Amino acid sequence: MNWTLEVVIVPVSDVDRAKDFYSNKLGFHVDHDTQPAPGIRICQLTPPGSGCSIVIGEGAIPKMEPGSIKGLQLVVNDVRRAHAELVGRGVAVSDVQVLPGPSTEGDPLNNAGFVFFDDPDGNSWAVQQISNRG
Asked: How would DSSP label each residue in the chain?
């Protein structure tokens, strides 16, 4: 049996501001943005190519402190290109960093290259290069 991670709740203080950040700055696809009843809003966004989405909203999602999620991680095959894209979209992102870890298999950034950024509420994200899965 497969167990797939499909949704991660990301707590935010302003749904519109967060939706703008994730869709326009990061390029996540807006799967839906619904308001099924007064005081309830659910917005689901998916990173390009991902099988897992994030959900932001109010009313129908668990109450969590905005900015309290740390260490969410995206994976790309070229962290330098991802860094340039994020900078071009106006995201405050760290420089490319090389962290110790698994074998780099011919590319010094493979498995070891990262960039880091926060959303407007302080939820933190890492972007890791994995260009060759063994």
From this structure: ------EEE---S-HHHHHHIIIIIS--EEEEEEEEETTEEEEEEE-TT-S-EEEEEESSS----TT----EEEEES-HHHHHHHHHHTT--BPPPEE---S--TTSTTTTTEEEEEE-TT--EEEEEE-----
For residue 54, what are the contacts with CB-CB under 8 A and spacing of at least 6?
A: 7, 8, 9, 10, 22, 28, 44, 45, 46, 72
pTM of the model: 0.92
Read off the pLDDT of residues 76-121 as tens digits, 9 standing for 90 and up.
999 999 999 999 999 999 999 998 877 767 788 888 999 999 999 9
Cβ atoms of 121 and 12 within 8 Å: the answer is yes
